[in-house]
């Protein structure tokens, strides 16, 4: 989701859009995992699309081709226990260290790899390559695997230097439906064609959720910084859990209320998500906020929404956002919240 939000944030770039994606440790899921996909049917057996689908759909929606780079590189045939390719060779096992790469540079902290058998290690490498191939094939790019990682930029430039670019503008309804794309070439000569596999008719609500999550992961604000958020004293809500009373002040100057039968009304969407010190994101349910006024709003009027924010008993960073489906306005606020 972080990568998908990044792609979306560069949606307005002109011309042919290509993203070089440095990948390490992204492996194909095993059949034991169960994950939720916004374009699936709820809880299903995981496959590549359920885990990496949001990134593929976001790239296809804004016209990006992904060129994923195999950051660890090839795994040597004689790799012994504790081999960690990204660090250039075998490392001491059993403890967390700070080491250097093969050029003597600082590479930061890493953890030793379990003592797998050689077959298991090569199978794991194959699962990671499968992800790179999936990302490239689904978006019309090229995977830079093994030795190609050292010349990925040059290969990408060569691949994109000369091309015919055909596009279309589909009728979008915001249904979040997945539509397949098929390209057939009628020619006597053998021609090679790469194309996107599909696109998602992404709704504005899905885009807003991705903007909010991307803002929490990368900084910045998904919308206008005009929300007022105030927290009360935390209340105990179970083992290692608290509930924080929350008051959200929404300025009506930034929204559109529609007149109807002598009243002014709208139904807003409220989202809030948290991230803790370990980088774990909370769920982000969408709450409908009906706004009803018996008189026409005056400059400076506000709407106050009160709720409770459940969380673990630790500090979190948060991003809150209110979306107005009538005008498309997005109001937001960000900060820290926790037991103190």
Helical amount: 10-25%
Large-scale geometry = globular
User: Would you report the number of β strands?
Assistant: 19
Structural class computed from helices and strand pairing: alpha+beta
Average pLDDT confidence is 77
Tell me the fraction of residues in β-strands, as a range. 25-35%
What is the count of structural domains? Answer: 2
- Biggest β-sheet, characterized? 5 strands, antiparallel
Please, how many helices? 5
The arrangement of helices and strands along the chain is: HEEEHEEEEEHHEEHEEEEEEEEE
Weakly predicted, low-confidence segments = 31-46, 80-119
Distance between the amino and carboxyl termini: 30 Å
Model description:
There is one protein chain. The protein folds into 2 domains: 2-81 and 116-201, no CATH class; 223-337, Immunoglobulin-like (Sandwich), CATH 2.60.40. It is 21% helix and 33% strand. The chain contains 5 helices and 19 strands. The strands form 7 sheets. Strands 14, 15, 16, 18 and 19 form a 5-stranded antiparallel sheet that branches. Strands 11, 12, 13 and 17 form a 4-stranded antiparallel sheet that branches. A hairpin with a 5-residue loop joins strand 7 (96-100) and strand 8. Helix 1 packs across helix 5.
């Amino acid at each position: 989701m972080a990568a998908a939000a990044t792609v979306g944030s560069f949606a307005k770039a002109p011309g042919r859009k290509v993203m070089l994606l440095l990948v390490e440790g992204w492996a194909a899921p095993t059949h034991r995992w169960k994950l939720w996909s916004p374009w699936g049917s709820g809880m299903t057996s995981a496959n590549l699309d359920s885990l990496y689908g949001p990134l593929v759909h976001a790239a296809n929606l804004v016209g990006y081709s992904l060129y994923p780079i195999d950051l660890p590189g090839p795994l040597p045939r004689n790799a012994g226990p504790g081999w960690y390719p990204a660090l250039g060779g075998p490392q001491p096992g059993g403890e967390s260290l700070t080491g250097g790469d093969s050029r003597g540079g600082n590479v930061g902290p890493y953890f030793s790899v379990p003592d797998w058998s050689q077959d298991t290690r090569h199978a794991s490498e194959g699962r990671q390559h499968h992800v790179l191939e999936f990302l490239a094939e689904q978006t019309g790019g090229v995977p830079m695997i093994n030795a190609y990682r050292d010349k990925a930029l040059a290969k990408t430039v060569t691949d994109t230097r000369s091309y015919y670019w055909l596009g279309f503008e589909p009728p979008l309804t915001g249904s979040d439906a997945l539509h397949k794309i098929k390209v057939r070439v009628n020619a006597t000569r053998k021609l090679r064609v790469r194309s996107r596999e599909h696109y998602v008719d992404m709704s504005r609500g899905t885009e807003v959720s991705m903007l909010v999550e991307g803002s929490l992961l990368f900084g910045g604000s998904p919308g206008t910084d005009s929300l007022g958020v105030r927290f009360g004293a935390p209340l105990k809500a179970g083992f290692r859990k608290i509930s924080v009373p929350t008051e959200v002040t929404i300025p009506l100057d930034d929204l559109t209320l529609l007149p109807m039968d002598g009243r002014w009304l709208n139904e807003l969407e409220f989202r809030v998500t948290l991230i803790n010190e370990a980088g774990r994101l909370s769920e982000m349910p969408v709450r409908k906020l009906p706004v009803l006024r018996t008189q026409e709003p005056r400059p400076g009027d506000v709407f106050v929404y009160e709720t409770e924010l459940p969380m673990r008993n630790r500090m979190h960073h948060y991003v809150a956002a209110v979306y107005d489906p009538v005008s498309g306005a997005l109001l937001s606020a960000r900060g820290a919240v926790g037991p103190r």
